[in-house]
Amino acid sequence: EEQQQQSSWAPVYTGREEAFRCLFRRIGQKRDAVTVSKAIQDFNELLRSESMHKRLQVEALQHWAWLYHTKIHYDSSPSVRAAALQTWTVAFERVPKAVMGLLLQHVELLGMIYATRTDPSAEVTSSAADAALFQQDWRWKDGLWAYANRILSYGRVSAMEDALFQNEQNKDAMEERFERIVGNCLDALNQYIIEHDIESDEPIWWKTL
Fold first, then answer.
1. pLDDT tens across the length of the chain (209 residues)
2. Distance CA 38, CA 22 (A)
3. How many CB atoms lie within 10 A of CB 27?
4. Neighbour tally for 17: CB within 10 Å
5. Spatial distance between the Cα atoms of 177 and 160, rounded to a whole number of angstroms
6. N or C, which end of the chain has less CB nearby within 10 Å?
7. Where are the alpha helices (DSSP H) in 7-95?
8. Euclidean distance between CA atoms 162 and 17, whole angstroms
9. How many angstroms separate the CA atoms of 30 and 75, rounded?
10. How many other C-beta atoms can be found within 10 angstroms of the C-beta atom of residue 206?
């Protein structure tokens, strides 16, 4: 039961470490890209720290997984998206079992992480190129299909905005974000198909187009 709990993300941080609590406020509530990026970098340093008990780091990682899935992955700032990918790398080095548990329990996270390899920003793809995560034999195909199935199901800008963001922006900004996220998702599918020599009649291809 404890292992199951550690493999589930947490919409609310219930851990005991005040430093993590402060950082989550900066990450989750601030819109300024510089502030959020710096907060994620500071978060990564706490995850990397060997002087902190791993249980505290795992508790923080559970909330991070939820934040990443609902907010951080879609951020318009490349520096935020690159720092967020680094979080997964740092966490995997420090608490690999916890990361594996989260990614298996919430397999769509794998698809989102895989999509960083085809991010339109060179800053993000450069970070992805160095990520040890991609050397793991995980359920990348399942995760990518789950992620693509959700993202492509929105179909239009307003549907994605209502589902993911629920905040007012100007029309051009919303369209740019929609095109970036959907385009990145399609590029990730294409990358996977090429890398694994998947035939064009495989379900992962046709069901998403």
1. 444 445 789 999 999 999 999 999 999 887 789 999 999 999 999 999 999 999 999 999 999 999 999 999 999 999 999 999 999 999 999 999 999 999 999 999 999 999 999 999 999 999 898 888 888 889 999 999 999 999 999 999 999 999 898 766 678 888 999 999 999 999 999 999 998 877 655 555 545 54
2. 13
3. 27
4. 17
5. 10
6. N
7. 18-29, 33-48, 54-70, 78-94
8. 33
9. 12
10. 9
Q: Do 111 and 147 touch, CB atoms closer than 8 A?
A: yes
The string of DSSP letters for 151-169 reads: HHHH-SHHHHIIIII-S--
Asked if 104 and 60 touch (Cβ cutoff 8 Å), the reply is no
This prediction has a pTM of 0.90
Q: Residue 45 corresponds to which tokens in the numbers above?
A: 């340093």
Alpha-carbon distance values, 19 to 15, 16, 45, 84, 145 (Å): 10, 9, 11, 18, 36
- Enter the tokens of residue 56: 């505290």
Q: What's the CA gap between 135 and 41, in Å, rounded?
A: 23
